[in-house]
Amino acid sequence: MSATHQPSLFEDADDVVRSADISGIPGLQYVTDFIDRVQQDELLRDLDAQPWLTDLKRRVQHYGYKYDYKARRIDQSMRMGALPKWAIRVAEDLVQRGLMPERPDQLIVNEYQPGQGIAPHVDCVPCFTETIVSLSLGSACIMNFANKQTALVVPLLLNPGSLVILKGESRYNWTHGIASRKSDDFQGKSITRRRRVSLTFRKVILAVTGD
């Protein structure tokens, strides 16, 4: 694990707490304050100007390729076009900062209202390349990482504006998920959840067929 800390614009905010030590999860990187509060608000406005899908219990948006949750698959027929300009700016920044090896071409946006979560899972291995990056907007919450072999669970507090980067063992050998609850207890502090939106950037693996 490595961590990058940039000067915070809102260290005194109630929802900002030091994250847990995640050095025991190889390949997991946590970046605090990747974007500031103003940039978060701009992204949320861009997102809320677009239609939300309600196929799942939570609202979602797909860009680049639409991912089939039920079949856990993705192919060329699911191509939706290029990422929007606001997403490309973030994607290019990820590459320029060395946080992704190549520009992602798929983005899934998840909205979590208080009480909503997502079951522990590993992002589809044959669908996406090694590096997965998720940007948190709005509210803080705890994401639990669980080792598939030992069942060890490590909680990670995702503060608004932060990035979590999965690659290597953290990508393939640990599940990640968010419990369905309205508040989180972390380091002796109760954190009330508000609306949270995550932007998960991925690079699609497409099957190559011969002539």
Topology as a string of helices (H) and strands (E): EEHEHEEEEEEHEEEE
Spatial separation of the terminal alpha carbons: 43 Å
Largest sheet: 7 strands, mixed
What's the total number of strands?
13
The number of helical runs is: 3
Structural class: alpha+beta
Q: Which consecutive residue ranges, at least 5 long each, have pLDDT under 50?
A: 1-19
Kindly give the count of domains. Answer: 1
Beta strand %: 25-35%
CATH topology: Jelly Rolls
Structural commentary:
The chain contains 3 helices and 13 strands. With 211 residues, the protein is of the alpha+beta class. Strand 11 (183-186) and strand 12 (189-192) form a beta hairpin. The termini are far apart. The model is unreliable at 1-19 (pLDDT under 50).
Please tag this protein with its features.
3 helices, Jelly Rolls, 211 residues
Q: Could you outline the blueprint of secondary structure elements for this entry?
A:
Layout (H helix, E strand, L loop, with lengths): L1 E4 L23 E4 L4 H12 L11 E4 L21 H12 L9 E7 L5 E4 L10 E6 L3 E7 L5 E6 L4 E4 L2 H4 L1 E5 L4 E4 L2 E4 L3 E7 L9
